Amino acid sequence: MFFHSAIFLFSFLPVVLAGFLLMEGRLFLRQAWLLGASLVFYAVANPVALVLFLPLVGVNFGIGSRLMGPKGARWLLVVGVVGNLLVLGYFKYANFFVANLNAVLGAHFFLESVLLPLGLSFLIFMQIAWLVACSRREAVPCRLFEFLLYSSFFPQVVAGPIVYQRESLPQFRRVRTREERDVDLCVGATLFTMGLGKKVLIADTLAPWATQVFWAAGAGRPLSLTAAWIGALAYAFQLYFDFSGYSDMAIGTARVFGVKLPLNFDSPYKAVSISEFWRRWHMTLSRFLRDFVYIPLGGSRCSPARRSFNLFFTMVVGGFWHGAGWTFLFWGALHGGYLVVNHWWSSLCERRNVPGSWIFPGWGGGIVTFLAVLVAWVFFRAANPGDAMRLLGSMVGGGEWHRAADPIFRKSSPELLAAVHQWVGSVDIQLVQGIALGLVAVFVWWLPNSQQVLAAYEPGLVTYGKSIRPAGRGWPTWKPSFIWLAATVVVFAWCLLNLSGVSSFLYRDF
Q1: Peptide bond into 161 cis (omega under 30)
Q2: Quick one: pLDDT band at residue 501, thresholds 50, 70, 90?
Q3: CA-to-CA distance for 151 and 142, rounded, in angstroms?
Q4: What is the pLDDT of residue 355?
Q5: CA angle at residue 332 from 374 to 509, to 5 degrees?
Q6: Which residue among 34, 179, 379, 382 is least enclosed by CB atoms within 10 Å?
Q7: Residue 4 to residue 248: CA distance in whole angstroms
Q8: DSSP state of 402
């Protein structure tokens, strides 16, 4: 069940919200209602997964409770963290290791295909964060019942954000005033609709464009420079709007229940350095890696060489967390290398007393950062490193510059191709796609993001910084009004007309 599926929009969410509003005055009843709904949401994807979920959460609660006690031993923390990682390792990486072991040894070890339970990667990181918080006496004391609700709260189950227990649990205990409830409902519905539009109208439209090009690269088909760039850019924007849309829908859904989740996406393609990119992309993951991998390794409080290793290793861990494959490892290693170079460059400019902006001004740094991210995305999406190298080779002119009426795109845009032929006549579909990608780029780099539009109403918890940057003068900001209501209804209706082919969220598989 996805946020943009008909069963969620017209059955699950209305029923759960109506029940919650009826029980809102009774703390235990509303918490029990949310917990029951969350377990149902989780079970719809894979009922058997509850057999793993419930004992896993229960064991972590028991270990965390002991760690918060006066006799909490450090070895318990080690046991808890290692146990969680072993669970994640088996379900996410067992097939990968067995396949590579067979390839290296020429053996034929066999393992039944292991199905990754929904959101297990995010759940495991949340459990680890809870255990560490308990050992530091930073966790909020709670009952198993409340801890189950924190761990299973359905808006965050599919693909995060990675929430710390001290952030969300107090909100489950809080009683809203009528005015706060009305604001939460309006802000949540608006944010959800913004995310739905990003996913359904933009990300799912771009998906076939990227799929056809990456398929062609994997099949060894010749790719022109134009086709390669269309495919790479289409995937970069597809992933951007898919994850941005999911984040808006997750945070918007939680908000209607009076819970503010941490912000997870902040216009990352506007970043002018790779370090800024990681403060804007998947913000709760980068925060987790910083808090529980980078800083424990020594962070930046060590020699430059050791700091470089810490950065590189942390990003390799982040890459491998995304998926069991060499392309994910290489993607993480690339970003680790980017961060090492970024810090080296900043240190060099500081020692020479040369402002880095003199050589790479804001727009220059933004271009370099985006191109670096784009190259890494090719490895992230490709089935194997060889396919990625073929696509990158075409992007730098390793084949034809342009092939008119390229058959690769005929299957990727049948509706667009039919509409263009009807209204314009015969035209190269690649030109139309290029114009469309240009318009998407304007959307990405020029317009304010959803959290900036809603900044006055604090749509979520601030993950980095002290406050949400407002949209700036001249840009419309959200407020309860008939115009915003009409716009929201129009976008929602437009999305409903395009729900015939509901697709998965890309980050669901990570």
Answers
A1: yes
A2: low
A3: 12
A4: 66
A5: 85
A6: 179
A7: 12
A8: -
Burial 44-75 (b: 16+ CB within 10 A, else e): eeeeebeeebeebbeebbebbbbbbeeebeee
Angstrom distance (rounded) from CA 278 to CA 283: 7
Query: What is the rounded CA–CA span in Å between residue 477 and residue 21?
Result: 28
Give the Cα separation of 368 and 389 in Å (integer): 20
CA separation for the pair 237, 440 (Å, rounded):
8
What average pLDDT does range 308-323 have in this prediction? Answer: 93
> From the centroid of its chain, how far is CA 171?
23
Lowest mean per-residue pLDDT among 14-18, 58-62, 396-400, 502-506: 502-506
**Pick from 92-96, 145-149, 378-382: least confident:** 92-96
Residues marked as catalytic: 322
What is the pLDDT averaged over residues 62-91? 88
Summarize the confidence of residues 255-273 as an average pLDDT.
95
Radius of gyration of the chain (CA): 24
How many whole angstroms separate alpha carbon 206 and alpha carbon 503? 12
- Residue 447: C-alpha distances to residues 301, 390, 444, 450 (Å): 38, 34, 6, 9
Report the range of poorest mean pLDDT among 88-92, 147-151, 168-172. Answer: 88-92
3-state SS assignment for residue 500: coil
The count of C-alpha atoms lying within 13 angstroms of the C-alpha of 234, restricted to the half-sphere facing its C-beta, is 26
3-state secondary structure of 42: helix
Residues near 229 by Cβ (< 8 Å), separated by ≥ 6? Answer: 395
pLDDT band, very low/low/confident/very high, at 253 (cuts 50, 70, 90): very high
Look up the pTM and report it. 0.92
Sign of CA dihedral 137, 138, 143, 149: negative
| Average pLDDT for the chain | 88
pLDDT level of residue 356 (50, 70, 90 thresholds): low
Q: How many CB atoms are closer than 10 A to CB 366?
A: 19
Q: What is the DSSP string of 83-143?
A: HHHHHHHHHHHHHHHHHHHHHHHT-----PPPPPPTTHHHHHHHHHHHHHHHHTT-SPP--
Reading the block at residue 53, the tokens are 């979920």
pLDDT, residue 433, reads 87
Structural tokens at position 55: 């004992």
